Amino acid sequence: MSLDTFHSEVDPVATGQDMHRLIAELFPICRSITGDGLRHTLRILRTYIPLEMREVPTGTQVFDWTVPKEWNIRDAFVKNSRSERVIDFAKSNLHVVNYSIPVQRRISLSELKEHLYTIPEHPDWIPYRTTYYKESWGFCLSHRQMEGLTEDEYEISIDSTLKDGHLTYGEYFLPGDTQDEILISCHACHPSLCNDNLSGIAVAVSLAKHLASLPRHYSYRFLFIPGTIGAITWLALNEDKLPHIKHGLVLSGVGDDGKLHYKKSRRGNTEIDRAASHVLQHSGTPYELLEFSPYGYDERQYCSPGINLAVGRLSRTPHGTFPEYHTSADNLEFVHPDKLGESLAVCMKILSLLENNGTFVNLSPKCEPQLGKRGLYRMIGGQSEAGLNEMAMLWVLNLSDGSHSLLDIAERSGIRFESVQRAAKALKEQLLLREKFDFVSTAAG
Amino acid sequence: MSLDTFHSEVDPVATGQDMHRLIAELFPICRSITGDGLRHTLRILRTYIPLEMREVPTGTQVFDWTVPKEWNIRDAFVKNSRSERVIDFAKSNLHVVNYSIPVQRRISLSELKEHLYTIPEHPDWIPYRTTYYKESWGFCLSHRQMEGLTEDEYEISIDSTLKDGHLTYGEYFLPGDTQDEILISCHACHPSLCNDNLSGIAVAVSLAKHLASLPRHYSYRFLFIPGTIGAITWLALNEDKLPHIKHGLVLSGVGDDGKLHYKKSRRGNTEIDRAASHVLQHSGTPYELLEFSPYGYDERQYCSPGINLAVGRLSRTPHGTFPEYHTSADNLEFVHPDKLGESLAVCMKILSLLENNGTFVNLSPKCEPQLGKRGLYRMIGGQSEAGLNEMAMLWVLNLSDGSHSLLDIAERSGIRFESVQRAAKALKEQLLLREKFDFVSTAAG
Amino acid sequence: MSLDTFHSEVDPVATGQDMHRLIAELFPICRSITGDGLRHTLRILRTYIPLEMREVPTGTQVFDWTVPKEWNIRDAFVKNSRSERVIDFAKSNLHVVNYSIPVQRRISLSELKEHLYTIPEHPDWIPYRTTYYKESWGFCLSHRQMEGLTEDEYEISIDSTLKDGHLTYGEYFLPGDTQDEILISCHACHPSLCNDNLSGIAVAVSLAKHLASLPRHYSYRFLFIPGTIGAITWLALNEDKLPHIKHGLVLSGVGDDGKLHYKKSRRGNTEIDRAASHVLQHSGTPYELLEFSPYGYDERQYCSPGINLAVGRLSRTPHGTFPEYHTSADNLEFVHPDKLGESLAVCMKILSLLENNGTFVNLSPKCEPQLGKRGLYRMIGGQSEAGLNEMAMLWVLNLSDGSHSLLDIAERSGIRFESVQRAAKALKEQLLLREKFDFVSTAAG
User: Fold this and answer.
1) Residue A9 reports pLDDT greater than 70
2) What is the pLDDT of residue B387?
3) Closest Cα of chain B to A390: distance in Å?
4) Are strands B139-140 and C70-79 parallel, antiparallel or unpaired?
């Protein structure tokens, strides 16, 4: 595998800037869980990676849910009696409650206020609100803006449509040496919000581009889907694929300057949970491990009891715990090229670990093999300390009894995975180890 | 089950005062492990709950033990040469070593002193001593009182009898929906001592009264028995009943103002151990969990290796760790109505948890069910935090795969059992859950 | 078993002085992994214990290794142009790199320096170096000594031989009641170094002498072998014996004044690991437990994956972590009679625990047996605390269900093993316990 060397070759600064540029390109579009904003977004992503766009008709039954009507919007505003647009969708698509039904009428200030949403604690920020599953309408605005509204007759216009159509999502499948898959999923339904979740989209696109150019043990499946209903739809329509998904990552909120958080899968101690823990532990940067809980992003669906995939989530500051969350302050300044680059690098290291986490069998298991005659050992004895690589070799030999993976060995020895992997490679070249499972023959099965 | 709502409806103050009154009523009686004091006590309890009184003849072999002779006492004193009663059983039944054989004679001070017991560190308290299994006699008195004794000829009189008779105990069985039983056991052999164990008796009586008026999944068996020999006797004569006992609690020392202590069963992680831990953890008051040890009260017998029941012990300050233990200072002032009420409330919560600790199966296990269309979910999305009840519902749905009880879910989520139970109830009403085991059909078996 | 009483009867001071005298006797000999120095050493040990000397021919294949040529040395020096011996093997055998090939020539200072080894941080100490598996030569000397060497023509002489011969080791087998064995292994290949490992040899000899005079459940096998190649050779030639080895200890570096360290076996929780932990925990002296790692002494071989014996290591300050390690400063002053005595005493306690770690069955498992009628219990009840021995008896009775050894009971109760053992003995004498396994009949099998 060459994923290992790859992640050290990625230039996180340049790649981070590329990702930030993609976020900037996607930022203005008014996305939702259905509709043309989502389609437009996926078409832009298609200029980076050859993803397939899927369309699922309104009314399709997906487990306990039904694919909703498609929502589109052209314009929306609130005008005062002097015909000034005091709230204007053209300025920010957050101004309209997402999925608002069409409205056209004149109302008083007090009636209007029943449909306005603000954040008093952050009076300059516009909140983000949705009404996907209840037909309703509303406007979001800064608290300061609302306080400036005077008694007046206001003209309300939401030029939207809500009718039968499709739910759209993007899917990109990268075949590997085996049918075993790693799933990378991110939600693509939020309008002008950068961290949540244009950052996840940008990291996923960058991952996909890089993986496409590398040899892969695993196949990779990237999903760009509307949150909740998109994951449910994909799972309902692709149940036959689930047995192939061995590991998965939900990417969300990976561009802010908070520390990295890995949220474990429902099962809690799967290989990807351990891989992510190991990578973060040796990352040299602050991080936190979160136990699974059934609240959050689409890991809720992947980790529902009847699905129960080994899917964790990588985020930086967890959703809901930073004030900019779901507000207009989650903007282009809130996400940072270097943080995007760091998130990408951590993903690559996790995937590299999974790609290389073989289980080996020591072919000379009775006592230590003589490393010296193979050039793997210090030649003059009696020195007080053996080097780290030697320790990695000794650990790999000692635990390669067919029941310990390289990650098991890294965890028990406290040595970082890359060193353990290099030691295994050197020992295999000396015919002191063989792989327990032949990946190629598995792929043929 | 309605145990759940019950425990919040008990008025701990009023019930605590009722319990304290019962303690005061029982306090003057000279109880022992056999005899009329114990019978008298059980007859008083019978005015509260319809318990059965059992009589087991002296000489009955009970496992490794033999039911001892019955002991009764009418009077006892030590008179000085001026015929003054310098030690008088009529003033406190603690003055006579419990199970003292009859004595009538005149002796010197030095001979008398060989039969006197005091507590030098607490010179005003009378100790409590017994000589059940060795025929002997003695008097207990305050150290100050003993220091006042002068050289003299003393008249000793213990007007007791020790002859073939019976060992008496009380048993109250409350049938429930199933034959599975919860055992509540307390020792009723101590004379004028309040915390040890009139407090346990009072809480058990109160529990029994309240449970009698409620629907019950479990059957309940209350034992009011002499310590050690009573538990051994009951177990030896009722081996056929042991398979039905699923959980049990020994109640002792539950009226002092120390913090609550739950001592785990020998098995250490049984359902009642976990239920008690959970209830105490969410009780809002200080508490301590004690690992099992083979020293203590009748849990020693219930948790002996050949019996090995899931029986824990609820106490406040553990026996032997407070100076008033087994002295005249364990009196009516040492036990407090509010503490008795709190102990009762904790018992009720533990029993309520056991009664309601079902295991459910999510009927919509693939992805989350759509709670919104069932009125179980916030209607406007995008808010930063879901409420606690919603979290409880999500946890119940996520873990109800047939292998997690509600207590498992409460433990993993950190949410208190009552919230989890309410969430399960709401989900079951919406046909999103079914119980894994039908309790009623089990009861028929 | 009487090992129990034995270890308290050993006089650690006198025995420590005996061990120190043996170290002093062995100190001057130039040992190596083969050759006459090793033979001479074993012959001296034979005056203490009747060990067998084994000779394995050069060229014998032992797993992945080959028994090397035998090395012997008579003299070695470096003379300056005035014929003064500026480096002299006769003064310290550390001066010659162990296994140096024969050399005889005149060279310049700069050429000489390519073959010199010093320790700049400790300018007065001579380092210890070896070149077992690479034909080479060299001298070791103090840094100060090297700095005094002037430009000159030097005469180099190493009067050694390296040719086909034998690898020698010593083996002493002490039969016990069963074929189950405890292995005690120490390396005997280091020249004039005291802690590493004349200390291990001295403690092993003392152990062997003492064990020989005691009844033994286990058989004991003592190995005095060259490090690494000796352990590999013994294991390769004795594979049939491995199933009998139930426990083992490598002894090395047990004479310095650092705290005791026990390094666990690869399996990590074997009976000897737990026995050593228990003994150290109750030793009253500072100690440390080390997890297994595949670096160290011959536990590397005993714990290789294809051998995987329950062998731990007892040391004081671990090798490589004290500056005197592998230098001339590891001399007679560096090891202390009292520390040798303490190490011996701890070994004896560990072995005593293993010898006595029976599993018993409570013959009266339903409720507690009546200890009082057997004289095992306080006669007057009501005291606030039971003594420790009583607690040990209660624990032994409670856990002797056939699935807990005495060590299990000691660990769970927190009571030291000797008290648990005494309690079991008392209970067995009262016919309240029987041993689960009859050791004698096992031995016959």
Assistant:
1) no
2) 46
3) 42
4) unpaired
